[in-house]
Amino acid sequence: MLRPHSGPQQQFIDTDAQIAIYGGQAGGGKTWALLAEAARYIHVPGYGAVIFRRTSPQITNEGGLWDESMAIYPQLDGVPLHTLDWVFSKTAGCPANIGFRHLQYETDKLAWQGTQIAMLGFDELTHFTESQFFYLLSRNRTTCGVTPYVRATTNPTCADDPIGGWVNRLIAWWIDQETGLAIPNRSGKVRYFIRRQGELIWGDTQDELLSRYGRADLGIHHKDQTVQPKSLTFIPAALSDNPTLIEKDPTYRANLEALPEIDRQRLAEGNWNAKVQSGLFFKVAQLEIVQALPAVLGCCRAWDLAATEGAGDWTVGVKLCRDRQKNFYIADIQRGQWECGYRDKVIRLTSDLDGSCTIRIPQDPGAAGKSETQRLIKMLAGHDVKALSISKSKEARARGFASQVNVGNVKLLAADWNNGLIQRLNAFPTRGIPDDEVDALADAFQALAELKELVVAIG
User: Fold this and answer.
1) What is the chain's Cα-based Rg?
2) pLDDT tens readout for residues 239-262
């Protein structure tokens, strides 16, 4: 039997708001609640729900939406399809459907023109733009008999975030603007809004907005009514609200506390005011300088590329190694402002000297980026070299590596580049301070994080 936990998860399932946003601390059971809510009307012929993530890998990654749905929907006689859909074939007549889709690019929203979605879901709402959300809201309609509604989950993001800051502003009434934390007695309270000249206007009731901007003598659904207020609520989530996760993984809280400070405030505390500041992302005092490398499982040299002689961005190649105890060692940094031809010679020579060391090269979006990456891979024939697509912000890319720095799992091999690296890590993400090494370290860390137990000697 599928049952939500009492408290916020139950509140999210029970609310009758047209739009409900469930968010805050990581581990609060938000994705489970979203999946369970999408299945509410699977007994209704013709019912259809779509849950969006920003990119396809976020749907199919280990432990993501698809994996979690596999633990829920078979219990409801759902049949999975390779199209990332679930069909509930026991529904009489036209079977109900729950699908997972992405909106990686802004224009992807236009592919949904003319569609009807009874239940519209967004997992990690702050990953989507405001225009994507409100355009899809216009597709939230159906003739199957279910009143259309929207459900979304999210973690906190500050108000000036260029992508998801609009969510912070949307739910500002539910958040203490001084502390950034949710106001407990406003959890689940329903408010109403309309849009006028591009701005949202709020009211505590439908009648309040109808009397000010519409026709109070007519009902909200009357054909001559001039405004249609939408109802919205926000329900904060906390790890303590999910006893299932706490029981199965009692170390999860410790994992959150080990995050870079900005992410710890967001994900462990649910703080909507937390902003990335220099000196907080990387706790450089945790770095240890060592005189020699131990035996390691393997190494990766990751490059961040530029191509201007003596100006602009820097080309950086960082060699990162990992031992059996999952300690990471920054073993070498090649760094310079080189034109393309000389840069390629440095990359090729460094790769030859590194020997049995994997290589990672970033691949920018678009055909030109792919063509350049393929050229470099061909140039490095004989080496273990792969391309990494760049689809995340710099901070998002660096979080995994920063979490290891901040708990003392990263060490530096003593060299003349140590001081410069420490200074730039401490300043990250200050605008104008080079962050090429951070990008390269993040990519090398990604390559080594899941390394298997195979010892590779260091030359």
Assistant:
1) 25
2) 888 888 888 888 888 888 888 777
